[in-house]
Specification:
single chain, alpha+beta, Sulfite Reductase Hemoprotein, domain 1, 5 domains, five-stranded antiparallel β-sheet
C-alpha cells in the first residue's frame, strides 16, 4: 500500500534542506491550482517540464509488447484512462542521473516507484537518465520527495534548462582514459543545477565529459558543450584540463560541435560553462524555438565572435568558490572496491552462454584484478524486480559503483575477478545475463510511437524485431559486423541518435495505394567513435517491414566485399552512396494492400497504420498521382546532391538540394491546381497557399520545414562550405518528408469529404 504524501514529506524534511522541501511544496500547490484552472497552461507546462514531468502519447500509441497504452494495468488493477485532460492521462517522469551514477539505495527506490506508480518498468535513456512511464501527475510530488530522500532530483530534467550532464560510464576504470572525469561531471552538474545564470534559456542545453578523444565515451561532439580530457606540461608537471567543443547537437538537422579551445585548465571549466550559458541566454533565439539551440547561435555569430563574447563574459564574472572547491580533494575522491582484486576464474565446466557473455559484457579495468560488467537492457528497459537484484548485487559485490550508460545499459564497476562467474549466475536468474553489450544486437532506440507524441513509426518495435532476428541468425557472432552500431528514432528528431550510427533509421510515412504506410529512412555514414566523429545522411525510405531485410543486405555486402581490416565507414565511402542506394532500391516498393496487408501495419502493432482507401484503377493497376511522380523526382535530385557532395562538388550539391526543395513546393502547388513559373513565384505561391494557411504545418514543428525552404531560396547561389551543404541536404530531405505529409493529409481530407 502506498504511503501518504504527508509521510514522504516528513521524511524529506528529516533528510534534506528546507529549500528543497519548500520548492516541492510550491510545485504541489501549482498542481492543485492548475487542476482548479487558476494557472495558465503555458506557465504550468514550463513548471512541470522543469521538474521532468512530460505528457505522453495516447491517441494511437502502441507499446512494443503489443498492448495499447490504454491497456496498461497498475498493480492495483487500475487501467490507465483516456487522454481527455492532463489529469486523466498518465504521463512520463524523467529522473536525472548525473554521469549515470547510482547506489544501491537509489536503485531500490527506483524499483519501488516503478512498481507503485508506473507499469513496473524503468527505462534508461541515451542521456543516462531514468524514465518512468504511465505516471499520474498528482503522484509526481510524492515521487520527487522519495527520490530526493535518497539524493536524486528531477529538477531541470526537461524544459529550457541544462539537462542531465553525461559522462563516460568507464571513467576512472578505463584503460585508455587521460584521467577520471567523474569529479568534473559531478561538480558541473551540481554547480549549474538551479544556478541563476542558467535559468533563462530559449531552449535546452546539454553538456558531456569524456575521458578519451578517440572512443565514443560521452559523445562530446554532439553536445552544446563537450569536454574531452587532456593534459599539458607546465613547469615540469602535467596539468589536467579539457579540449572543449561547443555548439553540437542532433535534432532534425545535426550540427557537429566546433573546437572552442584546445586546452582549458580544469579550474576554468565551471566558470567557462557559466559564461557560455550567459551568452546563450542573452543572445540565443527566443521567438523561433526551431532555431533556439546554441548550435544556431554559434553558427550565426561564427566561432571567433562567439569566443570573444564568452571570454568577455568570463572576465566579468564575480568569483565563486564552487568553481574550484571540488578540486581540493580530487586525488582522494575516487571509488573504492568492496573486495580485494583477483583473477577471473574461467573453467571448462562453465556453460557456453557464460563464455559468450564474458566476451562482450566484461571489461577488464585499468586496475588489475577488477572488471566492469555491463548489464544489457534490450530497449533500455528493466523491471522493478530486476532493479532490486542489481541493488543486491551492488551491496554484495561492488559498493555504490553502479552507472547507467549512453547505450541504455547499466554497469557494475569494481567487480573482483573471482566474483565474475557468481555475478553472471545471479544476473542470469533474473533475465539480465543477455550477451552482446556494445555489439550489433545492442540496439538503441527512442520511445517512438509507444509513448512519444512526436513518434511517426515504431522505433521500439523495429528495435526488438531486429534484435530477435540478429540473434536467431547468429549475426552477432560474425567478427566483421559484431561491433556495428544500430540506432533507431521514431521520427526525424534523432532521440535515438541515428545520425551517428553505422546503420541509422528514422521513422517517416508514405502514402501508398491509398494508405499511409510506415517507413524508415536509411541513414549511412555516421561514426559512433571519436566522440561522434561524423554524421550520416539518409539514402532512401524503406517500408518498415523491409528494414530487417535492408540490414541483412547491407551487412551481407560488407562481409562479402570488405578489404582486409576495412572498417564499415571506409567500406561505405569506397563503394559510394550511389551503390548503397542501388542495394535497397527494390526494397522501397510496397505491395498492394490486398496482396500483403502486413506492410500497412507497424512492428508490434496489429492495427492498420491508417485507413483511407482511394480505390483501384483500371486493369487492377495502381493510380499514381502526378504529385507522387514529381516528389519521387525531388527525392532523386536530393540524393544526387548527396553524390555531388561526396565527390567534393559543393556548388552543384547546393544547387541540386535547393532545386529539389523548389520542385517539391511546385509539386504541392500543382496538386492544388496552382501553376507557378519562376523560383520567386513558386516561393510566393507556396507561402500563400501552404504556409500562411498553415496547411504545411504539423502540430509539433509548426512551419519549421517551410523555413528551411525559405532560407534556401534566400541563399540560392551563395558559396557554401561542405558542412553547410551537408546541413542543406539534411534540410532538403526533411522538407520533402513534410511535402509527403502535407499531401497525405490533403488526401485524407478529400476522403473525409
Amino acid at each position: 500500500m502506498k504511503a501518504s504524501n504527508k509521510y514522504w514529506r516528513e521524511r524529506l524534511v528529516e533528510r534534506t534542506s528546507p529549500h528543497l522541501v519548500k520548492e516541492l511544496d510550491v510545485y504541489e500547490s501549482e498542481i492543485s491550482l492548475k487542476k482548479q484552472g487558476k494557472i495558465d497552461d503555458k506557465i504550468f507546462a514550463e513548471t512541470r517540464l522543469r521538474r521532468g514531468s512530460y505528457g505522453q502519447r495516447y491517441d494511437n500509441g502502441q507499446r512494443h509488447d503489443g498492448r495499447t497504452t490504454r491497456q496498461i494495468e497498475y498493480p492495483s488493477g487500475e487501467l490507465t484512462k483516456g487522454p481527455s485532460t492532463l489529469f486523466d492521462a498518465p504521463g512520463m517522469q524523467r529522473i536525472k542521473i548525473p554521469f549515470g551514477g547510482l547506489n544501491a539505495d537509489q536503485l531500490d527506490t527506483l524499483a519501488e516507484l516503478a512498481e507503485e506508480y508506473s507499469d513496473g518498468i524503468a527505462h534508461v535513456t541515451t542521456r543516462q537518465d531514468i524514465q518512468l512511464h504511465f505516471v499520474h501527475i498528482e503522484d509526481t510530488p510524492t515521487i520527487m520527495r522519495r527520490l530526493a530522500a535518497v539524493g536524486i532530483t528531477t529538477r531541470e530534467a526537461c524544459g529550457n534548462t541544462i539537462r542531465n550532464v553525461t559522462g563516460c560510464h568507464l571513467a576512472g576504470v578505463c584503460q585508455t582514459q587521460v584521467f577520471d572525469v567523474t569529479p568534473h561531471a559531478k561538480a558541473c552538474s551540481r554547480f549549474l543545477l538551479g544556478h541563476p545564470d542558467t535559468q533563462d534559456f530559449g531552449r535546452k542545453f546539454k553538456i558531456s565529459f569524456s575521458g578519451c578523444k578517440d572512443q565514443a565515451c560521452a559523445l562530446a561532439r554532439l553536445n552544446d558543450i563537450g569536454c574531452i580530457a587532456a593534459v599539458r606540461e607546465a613547469d615540469g608537471k602535467l596539468k589536467r584540463g579539457f579540449e572543449v567543443y561547443v555548439g553540437g547537437g542532433l535534432g532534425t538537422v545535426p550540427y557537429q560541435a566546433r573546437l572552442f579551445e584546445e586546452f582549458v585548465p580544469e579550474e576554468e571549466i565551471l566558470p567557462l560553462a557559466q559564461a557560455i550559458g550567459l551568452v546563450f541566454a542573452r543572445l540565443g533565439e527566443r521567438k523561433n524555438r526551431n532555431t533556439a539551440r546554441l548550435k544556431f547561435l554559434v553558427n550565426k555569430l561564427g566561432m571567433e565572435e562567439f569566443k570573444r563574447l564568452v571570454l568577455e563574459e568570463r572576465a566579468n564574472l564575480p568569483y565563486e568558490d564552487a568553481w574550484t572547491s571540488y578540486l581540493k580533494d580530487i586525488d582522494t575522491a575516487g571509488e573504492e572496491p568492496l573486495k580485494s582484486p583477483s583473477l577471473v576464474q574461467i573453467s571448462g565446466a562453465q556453460p557456453k552462454s557464460f563464455k559468450q557473455w564474458y566476451r562482450t559484457n566484461v571489461y577488464e579495468q585499468r586496475q588489475n584484478g577488477y572488471a566492469t560488467i555491463t548489464i544489457t537492457l534490450p530497449l533500455g528497459d528493466i523491471t522493478a524486480t530486476q532493479l532490486r537484484k542489481v541493488a543486491d548485487l551492488a551491496r554484495t559485490y561492488v559498493k555504490d559503483t553502479v552507472r547507467t550508460t549512453i547505450e541504455q545499459n547499466i554497469v557494475l564497476r569494481w567487480v573482483s575477478g573471482a566474483d565474475v562467474a557468481a555475478v553472471y549466475a545471479e544476473l542470469d536468474a533474473v533475465g539480465l545475463a543477455a550477451p552482446g553489450a556494445g555489439t550489433i544486437v545492442d540496439i538503441a532506440s527512442c520511445p517512438g510511437t509507444d509513448t512519444c507524441k512526436l513518434g511517426i513509426a515504431s522505433s521500439r518495435g523495429l528495435s526488438g524485431e531486429l534484435r530477435t532476428r540478429i540473434i536467431a541468425r547468429g549475426m552477432e557472432l560474425e567478427e566483421a559486423i559484431r561491433g556495428l552500431h544500430i540506432k533507431i528514432s521514431g521520427c526525424f528528431n534523432s532521440c535515438g541518435q541515428h545520425h551517428v550510427a553505422d546503420l541509422g533509421f528514422y521513422g517517416v510515412s508514405r502514402n501508398k495505394n491509398g494508405y499511409t504506410v510506415p517507413h524508415f529512412q536509411v541513414v549511412l555514414g555516421g561514426q559512433w567513435g571519436e566522440n561522434a566523429g561524423a554524421y550520416g545522411l539518409a539514402i532512401g525510405a524503406v517500408p518498415s517491414k523491409r528494414i530487417p531485410e535492408t540490414v541483412d543486405r547491407i551487412t551481407g555486402r560488407y562481409i562479402a566485399e570488405r578489404l582486409e581490416g576495412e572498417s564499415f565507414q571506409t567500406f561505405i565511402k569506397r563503394i559510394g552512396k550511389a551503390e548503397c542506394k542501388k542495394m535497397i532500391d527494390d526494397l522501397t516498393q510496397v505491395p498492394p494492400h490486398d496482396v500483403d496487408p502486413s506492410f500497412y501495419t507497424d512492428w508490434a502493432d496489429a492495427r492498420e497504420f491508417t485507413t483511407g482507401d482511394l480505390g483501384v484503377g483500371e486493369c487492377a493497376g495502381e493510380v499514381v498521382s502526378p504529385f507522387e511522380f514529381q516528389i519521387t523526382a525531388c527525392e532523386r535530385e536530393a540524393f544526387e546532391a548527396q553524390l555531388s557532395l561526396e565527390a567534393g562538388d559543393t556548388g552543384n550539391a547546393a544547387r541540386l538540394a535547393y532545386g529539389a526543395m523548389l520542385n517539391g513546393a511546385a509539386a504541392l502547388l500543382r496538386s492544388r491546381m496552382v501553376t507557378a513559373g519562376s523560383p520567386d513565384e513558386i516561393v510566393a505561391l507556396f507561402r500563400t497557399h501552404f504556409y500562411d494557411t498553415q496547411l504545411f504545418f504539423d502540430p509539433f514543428t509548426g512551419g519549421k520545414f517551410a523555413h528551411y525552404f525559405f532560407r534556401a531560396h534566400e541563399r540560392a547561389g551563395e558559396k557554401r562550405s561542405a558542412e553547410s551543404v551537408h546541413r542543406l541536404i539534411e534540410e532538403t530531405q526533411l522538407f520533402i518528408e513534410a511535402c509527403h505529409s502535407c499531401y497525405g493529409k490533403s488526401l485524407q481530407q478529400m476522403v473525409a469529404v
